[in-house]
Amino acid sequence: MSTNDLTGSEIFVKSLIEENVEYIFGYPGGAVIGVYDAMHDMSHIRHILTRHEQGAVHAAEGYAKATGKVGVVLVTSGPGATNTVTGIADAYMDSVPLVVFTGQVATHLIGNDAFQEADIIGITRSITKHNFLVKDVKQLAWTIKAAFHIASTGRPGPVVVDMPKDVMASNAPFLYPKEVKLRGYHPFYFGHMGQINKAVEIINSSRKPVLYVGGGVVTSNASTELFNLAKKLNAPVAMTLMGLGAFPGNDDLSMGMLGMHGTWYSNVAVDQCDCLVAIGARFDDRVTGNPNMFSPNSKKVHIDIDPSAISKNVKVDVPIVGDVRHVLERLTPLVNALDTKEWLEQIAEWKTEHPLRYENGDEIRAQYVIEKINELTKGSAVVTADVGQNQMWTAQFYRFMNPRSNITSGGLGTMGFSFPAAIGAAFGVKDRPVFSVNGDGGIQMNIQEMATAAANKLPLKIVILNNGYLGMVRQWQDLFYKKRYSHVTLGNNPDFVKLAEAFGGVGFATDKTDEVVPILKEAMKIHDKPVVMDFHTIQEDNVYPMIPSGGTVAQILDYPKSVKELKMAKAHPETVK
Amino acid sequence: MKKHTISILVENKFGALNRIVGLFSARGYNIDSISVGTSEDDSVARVTIVSKGDDDVIEQIIKQLNKLIDVTKVVDLTYDSFVERELVLVKVAANRNSRPELMQISEIFRSKIIDISQRSITIEATGSEQKVDAMIKMLEPFGIKEIARTGRVALKREFEGEV
């Protein structure tokens, strides 16, 4: 050992500095105590101590989604590592760049059922883009470089680096590689020009185009390119849950979200269009319903960086494998301005006939709360939604104006995601308010992170749409299980105001519609601590429109009491009896 | 559903095979046979998988395999001309009366007898799956005690004329 050698723990810290890491979200423990020792005096990187490892991963996801940078997590072995599993799976489904460092027992103990041992490499194999067990300290710097490279390039995703305690205590010279070469990993960024030309042909002959936009547009920072394409084509834009924010929500060409709880008009437009351009979207079952009946009349173009996303669920006419931004840069100059006047008029008519709507009254409607947050923040806040009804209402009524401001768990649908994700987002975004929208169920899944938010004086606006139910499950039981409400009642909710105060935050609660805006305004004046707003909404409200799981456009349930049958007949003559 | 022979080159390191097998089980693809060994390059292992599925499924399998960071090359040999072999060891019940006939069968299949005792003989055979199947069928009436098969290994054929 030469005197210039560093310990694995020191190499770890220096490597993260080389990667320009700003924040580590973590939780110490026995197997990483040496690593934490090396971090004691570090000044370039801030460590954020969460109150649970799951919170750390979601916070890192929120940070990564809000900034586009790689989120970094550090936890100990065994339970520390297994507590990260849900967050890792979440990041995998939503293509979030994360590097999760897990401690591991010393190499000679691996496989011995040692204290706090878990085979986290085996456990996370199917939910990571890649994972590494570092067996030799000389490989550590290279592995960290490779982990960041893999996590952040191509279709991004989580990478786990498992670090045995003895490896981190041994010494090696520190040499951080400038780049790593992996012979089995070559993400393909530039779309094939022949395919792009074929797509141009289809698009140019279209009169009723729809751009079907997913999270890939946000990931590849292609919002401007998308905007240019949509404007040049005069083509309406339907966004997936993850795509919201990629295109300005208040633009005339925006049709909002499509899919199960998407707008009536976006789904009907997708059904009737003659050309569907899928951009960074993956034909998820929540979008397509029955994949065989999805957009049956259209020629389909699919742009995606992941070849395995192509023709996985729906066959397309022209696949283009490549980075969305690169492909759009080449595609847009080649397409013509289309004559879509009639098509856009038709869609405008649908928008008037079938708007997103609800009936306001004295009792609070969740939709109203979201609508008011949207008005007060002009669609420019960062909003993390949880999973369920609160998520769908946020997607419907918050008109996201910017990319990287809509942060939610789309693929995995992880309850308890919103609040810790908002914490991470708040570290990444300082110039805009961060709202965390929750149901009364999901907020209780990671409520311990109130301590993290308060300790870091984060001015989070935590909205609880409190209906005393696990609302989305209740909705399904209402619609499909004869109203047999089986174990969906949250009968013993805590006093969220007191709870906020106990953690060092501020709490408001109301069940009156006219108090919603004053509370929101009051909350937005607080800049040094988290604010919980507990809105007691009407209890049994359903999210509409709804296409039942596996269904088709013909089965859209629009908001009740509408004249939907009449309109449906007009939109879809052959399928309405 | 057609049987496909997929040849995979993968980094010859800890857990790499696991990633391939795990992918098949996680996504519900089936494996008829799998064989693994080092390739011409020590740092690379060649995995040969025989899998059944319709074209869409096989296409997904190949795409998903290509996504694995440790996988450096995936080739579906099915549409190429390729050579394939499987090795099998069969332990068959044998006595003084049946032994000559067993030796004849072994010879017909150009296989070898590699172990012999009072009550059994063990035959080693290589060939295509069909040949191995045919031999096993011929041996069945004598009473098969144990079988060990390697699964198919395959390489693309380079010779382009008539074989």
Describe the structure.
The complex is a heterodimer of chains A (577) and B (163). Chain A has 577 residues and is of the alpha/beta class. Chain A has 23 helices and 20 strands. In chain A, the strands form 4 sheets. A 6-stranded parallel β-sheet of chain A has the order 3-2-4-5-7-6, with helices on both faces. Chain A folds into 3 domains: 6-172, Thiamin diphosphate (ThDP)-binding fold, Pyr/PP domains (Rossmann fold, 3-Layer(aba) Sandwich), CATH 3.40.50; 193-353, TPP-binding domain (Rossmann fold), CATH 3.40.50.1220; 366-536, 3-Layer(aba) Sandwich (Rossmann fold). Helix content of chain A is 35%, strand content 16%. Chain A starts with 5 loop residues before the first strand and ends in a 6-residue tail after the last helix. By secondary structure, chain B is α+β, with helices and mostly antiparallel strands. Chain B has 2 domains: 2-80, Alpha-Beta Plaits (2-Layer Sandwich), CATH 3.30.70; 83-156, Alpha-Beta Plaits (2-Layer Sandwich). In chain B, 28% of the residues lie in helices and 41% in strands. Chain B is built from 4 helices and 9 strands, in the order βαββαββαββαββ. Chain B has helices at 16-26, 55-67, 99-108, 129-139; strands at 2-11, 33-38, 44-53, 71-76, 82-93, 112-116, 120-127, 144-149, 153-156. In chain B, the strands form 2 sheets. In chain B, strands 5, 6, 7, 8 and 9 form a 5-stranded antiparallel β-sheet that branches. In chain B, strands 2-3-1-4 form a 4-stranded antiparallel β-sheet, with helices on one face. In chain B, strand 2 and strand 3 (44-53) form a beta hairpin. Chain B is elongated and about 55 Å long. Chain B starts with a strand and ends in a 7-residue tail after the last strand. The model of chain B has no long low-confidence stretch (mean pLDDT 93). The chains are: A alpha/beta (577), B alpha+beta (163). Chains A and B meet through loops of A and helix 1 and helix 2 of B.
